[in-house]
Write a structure and sequence with these properties.
By secondary structure, the chain is α/β, with parallel strands linked by helices. It has 10 helices and 8 strands. The protein has an 8-stranded mixed β-sheet with strand order 1-2-4-3-5-6-7-8, with helices on both faces. Helix 2 packs across helix 3. It starts with 10 loop residues before the first helix and ends with a helix.
Length: 263
Amino acid sequence: MSGCLQFRMSESKARDYYSKEPKQPEFRTYHVGDQKINFVEQGSDTSRMVLFVHGSPGSWSAFSDYFKDERLSDYRIISVDRPGFGYSDFGWAEPSLQKQAEYLKPILEMNGNTQKPVLVGHSLGGPVIAKMAMEYPELTGSLIYLASSVDPELEPSNWYRYILKFPLINYLIPTSFRVSNDEILPLKGELEKMLPDWKTIKSPSVVIHGVKDDLVPVGNADFIAKKSVKSDVELIKLENTNHFIPWSHKELITRKILEQLNN
């Protein structure tokens, strides 16, 4: 059961998945201190970059279908395994959003294009890309938030998450869920630390959120629009839509990515 719930795609499975595609994504790794970061990329080093950052749990493969989209084939597409997920030291959570931003900074520094990268973050990937924009504005272009969990006041208590920390239960749950639990428990405090810095974000932003999202309340979308006082924000609320918009609304998201790439 644990093996089936790892939320990751191996390099061999990826080769099979993209075997009939004209372009084949490549697996890459680098280290920041002791932290290994795995990412998958496709396209020329000098092409305009799009960086996808997944939620919790998840991995680079959350955005695997975007690598198949011909409209994005002229760009450098990168999807990363956040710390503790996929093949980035799987099983070892990093609760600090500051650290997560630091660990992903080298990808931004790989940009070989004169224009800044477009960052796309789903769920917990949303505050990660926001933190990157706060810390590294000189490296960060447009931001696209997908059902992002950013408002500390809207973080649920989720009492059961503390039970999952009990040693026996913690041992029995799948690794990806344990890592997810370990980074979500302190998330409210991490989001509170970010509150003073929202006003520093100048990147154009697109916020897409489902009105029927039962995991991350749609009020998070309003929070981004309200707090990003120096950013041009496009707010899109999708009726009758839940949390899983990277898959249910790929067409809309791809269109918004292309709009930002061509701005």
